[in-house]
Amino acid sequence: MTNNAETPEDGSVRYDQARYVENGQYEPLLAEKDQTRVEIGDDDDSPLPDDLTRDSLELPELSEPELARHYTRLSQMIYGIDSGPYPLGSCTMKYNPKFTEDVAALPSAAVHPDRSERSTQGSLELMYRLQDYLGRIGGMDAVTLQPPAGAAGEFVGIRVAAAYHEHNGEGHRDEVIIPDSAHGTNFATAALGGYDVVSLPSDEDGRVDLEALEAALSENTAALMLTNPNTLGLFERDITEIAEMVHDVGGLLYYDGANLNALLGRARPGDMGFDVMHYNVHKTFATPHGGGGPGAGPVGVVSELAPFLPSPRVRESEDGASEPSYELFEPDHTIGKVHGFQGNWLVLVKTFAYIARLGDAGLADASAKAVLNANYLASQIGYDVPYEPFHHEFVASAGEQDAADVAKRMLDYGVHPPTTKWPEIVPEALMTEPTEVESKATLDRLAAAFNAVADEADGALEAAPNRTTARRIDQTSAARNPRLSWHALEDE
Amino acid sequence: MLEAVGAATVEELFDIPPAIEFDGAFGIDARSERETRRLVRSMLDRNDTLTELLGRGHYGYYIPSLVDHLADRSEFLTSYTQYQPEVSQGFLQVLFEYQSLLVELTGLEIANCSMYDAATALGEAATLAERVRETSGHRVLVPDRLLEGRRSTLENYVAGTDLVVEEYPLDDGVVDLEALEGMVDEDVVMLYAENPTVRGTIEEGLESIGDLATAHDALYVLGSDPIALSLLQRPADVGADVVVGDASVLGLPTSYGMGLGLFATREDFLRQVPGRLVGVSEDATDRRAYTLTLQTREQHIRRERATSNICTNQAWVALRTAIHAASLGPHGMVDLAKRGVTRAEDLAEHLDEMTGVAAPVHDRRHFREFVAHVDQPAAPIAEDLERRGFAVHVVGEHEIQVCVAGVSDAKLERFVAAFKEVVQ
Ligand SMILES: Cc1ncc(COP(=O)(O)O)c(C=O)c1O
To answer: For chain B, which residues make up each domain, given as ranges?
Structure first.
């Protein structure tokens, strides 16, 4: 351990992540603890003839205590929101309230999707009420809960736009306009939908350049995809005018809901002129990110687009019973399905619980604190923040430092670093989103980490991280010599 | 804090034009945690408690306690994509081990660390077929009984390409090889088959289907799941190029259709794989370390030229699947699969003994589920069974499908008794 890895005397905590080393390596793979081969078909108890079965299966055979230790150790080698602040810009890493895990684990939530409507009124009611909540929050007329993530929501939006234009005899529209600062999924989704992507440069204030937009719009425009506040945290002030311009050429305006946390209770995409949007519930509504997922990406639309939404949706049925009952229905011009069943149901249960717990006041309070926290944190750090006024996130520039190195060094201070090197319009970007859940004390600690790293020499940064389970990992060799399973390691 | 940022109120920090400001009145009441739990519980209590003999792409196997307790550790739950591998070794190792599990099960060299579900994995396989095709063809062939959710999702995934989805027929529950042979030509870029099939039959012609695909330069995509793969023919041995399916048969209880998309393929398509891949590297101390790799395939780098638009995936479900598989071990997995065969066939025998019932409908071997013919109309039988506490599939006017996965022997006995009463 080098001296410069010591945490400075500035009130920051000293951090050491768990590290197990055995035979010169970190925690062994399951397959290095045991490999047992089961032969199939060489005994009498195989219920199938050999030509319908495999020959054998080789996997680890370990006791329950051995497994409990294996996974407990692995969990200790992970930094999560419960470990400390996680200001990963654009990802809205807010604390995940524990009680939502309990409601999703209710035995009554564990139902099969092919059950009759009559026997699943509880699930249908929850979905109906969640559709309703989300519609109100986004200012949208109709909602589908089916998309299993934000990108899948974008795909629904793009497919709905295609179906709508087709329906109106405008199937020739083959372009989707996307600002250059947008998230990668926007571009990839438009391409998956078969559209040509028209990239839109930002103006010098970091917002949509109206002249460039004018030039990009045409009778070939199917949609413009925007997020607001944009990835710099700036509100697109001209949004009403942008919506008019898009609508004037017959295009649709898509809202990427990744940044809705900034606006809860203060502005609604529907009121801004957006026609279709996704909600990123693992961001805005605090469902856990689970090491990469599952999330959910419900989609809301204005009434004109409702007939095109995926099938089925949930509605109240008019059977005249005293207690309201619910049924599934197929929208008239549905695009069909984007998931085998109803999407990430367990995540939807957590989403419902979070919204029902917070209510109007709690939701508005979340955006207030998210924006205050971002502004406070930015005011406490030495790095330059070129674009203002930002909302729930800001993009600082690491200047002469390499943003990726800054991030590695921040790990040594026991905090998760920001998103780095995106959006590209800020050199060496540090995209920072502290969320509403952090206290002033935590924000101060986070700022101390930023500032300590800002004052350090490149050498210290390049040597980082030191206090994490693994030291700096060589990315190039992983890609040059791909070893993607323990089988690939055996061959070495 | 306001002082530090030079604002008098929080409202000053918002740069929203007055014309589009919203007053915050959604009309959603706040509740205490306890009230919220009560609200959700009372709502979900409206779901009847039924013994589900349901399958058809979603299964409710018993989940060992170990899975919940370990997977609910908050480091697993509250972390995100491993953009900083040095501080995420634990999750990366889990995903690497999950990929390894799928490599063992499929015999293919590469598995990604998750798609959303079986349907989207099938859609991704079709876009892969489009990218790697060696002919100018555009036909994707799928079985005529493909689950509607899979078929429709596939249609959406290929809507932006020149691919068209066509059906080939099944013959008594398995692929009609003769009919298929008549349909396959140079225009076919992908041939999709399932094992077991949606009606629970075990496919007998896997190798011949593979030969057909190879002879016409079509991608051979096989749909299956980790429990079936523990016992049934290994995809690599029948020439599969891609395996898709729902891996959450291990790891998730019935979850209203939530799943985990399995995606495995041959090494040749490494640079064309959709989704995230965890690979091995070394850290500065030369110890083995894990990291997301080959990211130049992905949307955050390659944008509109990415191999997929997926970002947030099903990593935590993959964790659950990996723990469940580990807790079963190879013996447990093979045994579980064997019981899927014997218990389904036992149940079919019991139903077949009843007057007015013939089971299974197909004269084939079955895995975990099967279709029964009933002389009376099927729908009223299912309704009657539901009143008696059992849920079954109605798959035809006189056809009922039942699945034994996760249903205890005692409950199966009671089901047989109830079924008998209903059809008598
Ligand atoms: C701005 C933005 N748009 C879209 C997405 C895609 O959402 P998801 O990861 O849920 O697919 C993300 C986050 O990952 C994002 O930050």
So the answer is: 2-39, 51-62+330-423, 65-322
DSSP symbol at B232: B
d(CA A3, CA A455): 16
Is this prediction's pTM over 0.95?
yes
Question: What residue of B is the nearest CA neighbor of A281?
Answer: B312
Which residue of chain B comes nearest to A292, CA vs CA?
Answer: B81
With a 6 Å cutoff on the Cβ, whether A419 touches ligand 1 is no
Q: Which residue has the tokens 């599969």?
A: B240
The residue in chain B having the minimum alpha-carbon distance to the alpha carbon of residue A91 is B80
Ligand 1 atom nearest residue A256's Cα: 3
Cβ-defined contact of B89 to A72 (cutoff 8 Å): no
- Is residue A292, in this structure, part of any structural domain at all? yes
Contacts of A474 in chain B (CB under 8 A): 281-283
**Residue at token pair 């996704």:** A278
Same domain as A172, residue A141: yes
CB pairs under 8 A between A and B: 614
At residue A477, does pLDDT exceed 70? Answer: yes
Q: Which of 3.40.50.970, 3.90.45.10, 3.40.120.10, 3.90.1150.10 is the CATH number of B51-62+330-423?
A: 3.90.1150.10
Q: Are residues A235 and A321 in the same domain?
A: yes
> Is-contact B284 B306, C-beta < 8 A?
no
pLDDT of residue A11: 53
For residue A204, how many other CB atoms are within 10 A of its CB?
8
Do residues A248 and A132 share a domain?
A: yes
Cβ of residue B54 closer than 8 Å to a chain A Cβ: yes
The secondary structure of B257-275 as a DSSP string is: T---EEEEE-GGGGGG--S
Is the separation of the CB atoms in A97 and B74 below 8 Å? no
Distance A230 CA to ligand 1 centre (A): 12
Among protein residues, the one with the nearest Cα to ligand 1's atom 13 is A91
Q: Which secondary-structure segment (H or E) carries B121? A: helix B118-132
B62 touches chain A (CB under 8 A): no
Clarify whether residues A25 and A145 are in a common domain.
Answer: no
Cβ–Cβ under 8 Å, residues A147 and A338: yes
- Token pair in block for residue A97: 């309230």
Domain-located, residue A348: yes
ipTM of this predicted structure: 0.98
Do A66 and A105 belong together in one domain?
no
- Name residues 94-123 of chain A within 8 A of B (Cβ): 95-97, 99, 101-103, 105-116, 118-123
**The pLDDT of residue A66:** 98
A 10 A CB-CB count for A109 gives: 23
CA distances from B150 to A41, B205, B245 (A): 33, 22, 10
- Number of folded domains that form chain A: 2
Q: Which of B116, B312, B313, B316 to mutate to test the pocket of ligand 1 (most atoms within 8 A of CB)?
A: B312
| B79 interface with A at CB cutoff 8 Å | yes
For domain B65-322, give the fold.
Aspartate Aminotransferase; domain 2 (3.40.640)
Which of A29, A81, A102, A114 should be substituted to probe chain B, the one whose Cβ sees the most B Cβ atoms within 10 Å? A114
* pLDDT-above-70 percentage for chain A: 96
- Owning domain of residue A62: 21-76
Do both A233 and A123 map to the same domain?
Answer: yes
Q: What is the pLDDT of residues A118-129, one digit of tens each?
A: 999 999 999 999
Domain's final residue, options A30, A45, A76: A76
Q: Confirm whether A168 is domain-assigned.
A: yes
**pLDDT mean by block of 10 residues, chain B; 424 residues:** 96 96 97 98 98 98 98 98 98 98 98 98 97 90 97 98 97 96 96 98 98 96 98 98 98 98 97 96 97 90 90 98 98 98 98 98 98 98 98 98 98 98 94
Among candidate residues A76, A111, A141, the one where a domain is terminated: A76
Q: Which residues contact B380 (CB under 8 A, 6 or more apart)?
A: none
Residues A145 and A25 in one domain: no
pLDDT over threshold 90, residue A10:
no
Whether chain B has a CB inside 8 Å of the CB on A168: the answer is no
